[in-house]
From TrEMBL:
<dbReference type="InterPro" id="IPR036249">
    <property type="entry name" value="Thioredoxin-like_sf"/>
</dbReference>
<dbReference type="Pfam" id="PF03960">
    <property type="entry name" value="ArsC"/>
</dbReference>
<dbReference type="InterPro" id="IPR006660">
    <property type="entry name" value="Arsenate_reductase-like"/>
</dbReference>
<protein>
    <submittedName>
        <fullName>Arsenate reductase, glutaredoxin family</fullName>
    </submittedName>
</protein>
<comment type="similarity">
    <text>Belongs to the ArsC family.</text>
</comment>
Length: 118
């Protein structure tokens, strides 16, 4: 299994995805097809944290008046399933690896995984 969860309107996601040959990957645009409970469970098994999957930059945080510091793991899980913008993106998921988000360290790990020269 090789899946990429991304948002088509996100320039950063598109820029990251463009670096790799994803011809044998399942591409999931999360606004059109939100993540399922089963997929979130798969991600959790690899990260051991819903918070690690949670985007603290989501506009929904301010709109809903959420205080991220007070959220529990269960709150993160519920929010991730409730609205697509709470997922930190992109997420590259394989049978034994997960790459979450667009920070420099994660992108470098992805480049190494794909064998792309830095």
């Amino acid at each position: 299994m090789k899946k990429v969860f991304y948002l088509n309107t996100c320039d950063t996601c598109r820029k990251i995805l463009a670096q790799f040959d994803l011809s044998d990957w399942e591409l999931r645009e999360i606004k059109k097809e939100p993540i399922t409970k089963e997929e979130l469970a798969e991600m959790y098994m690899k990260t051991k944290s819903y918070e690690a999957l949670f985007s603290k930059k989501s506009t929904q945080i301010k709109q809903r008046g959420l205080d991220v510091k007070t959220l529990t793991e269960n709150d993160f899980k519920d929010l991730l399933l409730d609205h697509y913008t709470f997922l930190k993106r992109p997420v590259f998921l394989t049978d034994d690896r997960i790459f979450v988000g667009n920070d420099k360290k994660n992108v470098e790990a992805l480049q190494e995984f794909f064998g792309v020269k830095l």
